[in-house]
Amino acid sequence: MTIENVVDTIENCRYCLMCRHIASVEYVTHKETLSPHGWALVIASVKRGLLKWDADTVDAIYSAPDHGNSRAHCVTGQPLPEAIAAVRAEIVSQQLAPPVVYDLDESLREYGTPYAQRKPGVVPNEGGVALFVGDEAQYLWPKTLSVVSDMLVSIGINPIMIGLGRNNGYLASSLGLPDTARQLAEATLEELKTSGASRMMVLSPGDYFTFNQLYPERLGIDFPADVELIELTSFLAEQLEGGEIRFNKISSQIPFAYVDPTHAVRVTGRHDAPRQLLAAVMPGEPRELFWRRERGHPVGSTALQFTKPDIAEKLSRARLEDARQSGAQLLVCDDPGTLKQLDQFAEEFGLQVKGLYELLFEQLI
Question: What CATH class does 129-240 carry?
Fold first, then answer.
C-alpha cells in the first residue's frame, strides 16, 4: 500500500547523518547539500517558508539519485527516496522542474522510453513464464535478450517476452511524473495478464524493486498476487545448485570482479546469487570492490543521466576507479543499465566490461 504522508519523512531526515557513510552523490561531489540530510533540509526549509523553489533549490532536489541507499541504511527505514519523488511531483505540477523533465514526460508517454522513438513491441503469445524486457535491455544492452532466452530454453522454459522497449515506470516516478509511471505500469501489467503467465522473471534488481515495492508504495498499484516475481540471477543460481544447468570454466586467468548493480541494495538477500553464478565459470577468486553488496554505490544509470549528467558520469567513473584499485581487469554485471554506464568509460581505466548472462551462455554445457 502507499506510504501515508511520505513527505513528512524529511522531518526525521533533515538533521540525521545515519546514512551519510554511503551517500554516493556527496561522495563524488563533496557537497553536503547533495546528501540525504541535505536534501531533506532543503525540502523542510521550503515547507517552512525559509527557502522557495527556485533554480538552486530545484537543482539540488533533482541531484538526488533515488537508488535506495539512504533507506537501506536507516535503522527506522525512513522512505526518503519516496519522499523526494513526491516532492518532485509537486515541483512538476508547479511547472518548476528542469525543462528536460517535461521532454522526458513526452517521450515516456509517446514511446514508453527515452532511448528510442519507437512504440513498445507486443508479443501476443501466451505461456506460463513471462520475461520482462524493459527499455534498458532492449536499447542499451540488447545482447542480453537472445542469450537469456536461449539459456532458459535449454532448461525447458520458453519465456513470453513482455514490456519490449517499455520503461518499467521507475524513471517516470523518480522524475516526479507519477501519472506517467502509472500509465507505463498499467500497460505492462495488462500484457502480463494477457500472457496468462504465473511467473514473471526480471533481469535486474531495479526491475524487481519497481514491480515489488515501487508500484504499491509510490503508485498505489499492486503486482498481481497470483504471479510469482523472480529475479533471474536468483533463479539461475537455484538451477545451478540443483544441477539443472551446468557451465564450463573459462581458461583465462584475468583478474575479475562483480559489480553490484544500481538498486541492488533495494533487494535484500540477492548479493550471493550472481557471485555463485560467476564462480561457476571463472577460475580463481574474484576481486571485491569497496562499494559492494549492502553498501554498493550506483553508477549513473538513474534519472541523473538526464537531469544531472555530470553527476551521473562522476558516479560511473567512481565505480570504475574502485574496480581499478581492486586489481580487477574484467568487470561483470547483470544489469543492462549499469553495464551501459560502465562500458562508456571502462577503456579509460584499462578495464573490460562483460554481461553476466552473456558470460554464462558462452560457457553453458
Answer: alpha beta
